[in-house]
Amino acid sequence: MTLEAKIDKTNIPKHIAIIMDGNGRWAKQQGQDRLFGHSSGVESVRSTIKACRELGVQFLTLYAFSTENWNRPKEEVDGLMDLLVQSIANEVDELNENGIRLITIGDESQLPNHCQESLGWAREKTKENRELTLVLALNYSARWEIIQAVKKIAIEIEAKNMSSEDMTEKTFEHFLSTHDIPDPELLIRTSGENRVSNFLLWQIAYTEFHFTEVYWPAFSKEHFLKAIIDYQTRERRFGLVSEQIQG
Description:
Elements (H helix, E strand, L loop, with lengths): L2 H4 L8 E5 L3 H7 L4 H22 L3 E8 L7 H24 L2 E6 L7 H14 L5 E9 L1 H17 L10 H5 L12 E4 L18 E4 L9 H12 L9 H4 L2
Parallel strand pairs: 1-2, 1-5, 2-4, 3-4, 5-6
């Protein structure tokens, strides 16, 4: 039986988030520099997007650059920024052809101007697409996101537009970067690391995790389908017991 045949098409996650890890280690195995790993990882992004479209996934969030990544060597950071701009320029037409909308989360103001301009252009070009929403987390930190939300709430309370008694989970979520995006049902992390690295900390409260030893540039459609199959073996109880879930 093929992997596709094993998948229950009625139980596909609406939103999948991925921590794309292992580019540098994969490149080292190939005797190449780290930027070679990052550029090779673009093909894994393409194949994952294609698989999401085929399965009917509605949102795909990719952890592309964290706030901590600024601490990497300048040559690598500059190369990543150039790769980002180049990739966007190369992919926008295909995104439109396949009905894919691009949005971003994170502190984009800290990115180089040419990156900000490229991202703004791509968001505008794809804003009407609805088949799949591709969310790039760029200069993103979950703690930063939560602090920004708290600051916005404090301003609203100070302006007397709301009170502390108005605060609920739903109210708080309205001030997050992902306020228009459902929480991910599945989080995939590649490269054998078993941590979430400051990614979507609020949103993954009930997310299923799938960790794989495979480095991101080697992550294929087969690995993605295996993650979906793994997800479908889980019983998502949300604090209930099995008997309640089963009826």
